[in-house]
Design goal:
The protein is α/β, with parallel strands linked by helices. Helices cover about 40% and strands about 15% of the residues. The longest helix has 17 residues.
Length: about 290
């Protein structure tokens, strides 16, 4: 990608924090990083415990783009469970929560046990909750990247269009980024590579829907191991284009310890790493609302 007037290379970077609203420490990290020009975007979880606090935080950060982090697994729904029975794990929390494991969700999705209409309905309500709180939703993405799969992507695109959302995360990581991520485990590396088989369908569906997206995501493979050295390696290897650095910064405090997440100490590491690297990056920092 080149600027039309100068013919010079263009590197545009969206630095997006997932799980906005999860804990006060995550919300605080988003605010601090945005103020330090180390974060340009965050995706808000509509049913998170600290949703209202996150909304207040976002309104204090005028340069922060805020998307909706659609949760269909490992969380609670916005709709009454009786309206979305195929999304609910009847064995947990008295039948009021989503499936706790991504593997179970994907298995049931591929076996046709989850209804498209229920995904669309739940995603629509989550997006509208964020919008009704006074937030302009710049884009959508999904918790644990469930929209990698066409069975989630298609109804999610319908929900985004119905809500007037113009962009969506491209969750696929390319070879240059995978090669620049040295400290990820081999099993996760294999999983991320295998999921790229869905990339062509993603591009076709998104283009058909008329939504905007990036050239790809970086940092997905490094989830849980994203440190300053990895970010520097990614930035050094980043080719011309528009890329999204997916990250999960926060404070590993008492509130986070009460959450069912494997990302604990790594949130402190990511927060520090972003502060050390992103303000000095040569790429233009943007959010999804600035893709056009």
């Amino acid at each position: 990608m080149y600027a039309a007037d100068t013919l010079t290379p263009v590197h545009r970077l969206i630095v997006n924090a997932d799980d906005f609203g999860l804990t006060p420490g995550v919300n605080q990290a988003v605010m601090e990083l945005n103020a330090a020009r180390a974060l340009s975007s965050a995706t808000l979880m509509a049913t998170a415990s600290y949703f209202s606090q996150a909304v207040s935080t976002a309104k204090q950060c005028p340069s922060l783009g805020v998307g909706c982090h659609i949760v269909l697994v490992d969380g609670t729904p916005a709709l009454p469970p009786t309206q979305i029975p195929s999304l609910i794990d009847t064995s947990s929390q008295n039948g009021t929560a989503f499936r706790p494991k991504l593997s179970t969700f994907v298995t049931d999705l591929l076996r046709g046990r989850i209804r498209d209409s229920e995904i669309e309905a739940e995603a629509t309500v989550q997006i509208r909750k964020v919008q009704q709180a006074g937030i302009h939703v710049t884009h959508v993405d999904t918790h644990k990247h469930t929209h990698t799969f066409p069975g989630v992507l298609r109804p999610l695109l319908k929900a985004a269009l119905a809500c007037g959302v113009k962009a969506i995360r491209n969750p696929f990581e390319t070879d240059w980024s995978l090669n620049a991520t040295a400290n990820a485990g081999n099993v996760r590396r294999m999983q991320v590579r295998l999921l790229r088989s869905q990339g062509a369908t993603f591009s076709k569906e998104v283009a058909s829907a008329g939504l905007l997206t990036t050239d790809g995501a970086i940092g997905v493979l490094a989830t849980g191991t994203l440190d300053a050295l990895t970010i520097r390696n990614l930035l050094s290897a980043m080719p011309n284009g528009t890329w999204e650095l997916v990250c999960h910064p926060g404070y590993n405090d008492a509130d986070l310890q009460q959450v069912n997440t494997r990302l604990l100490a790594s949130r402190d590491v990511e927060r520090t790493a972003l502060l050390e690297t992103i303000p000095h990056a040569s790429a233009e920092l943007i959010h999804f609302g600035q893709l056009a």
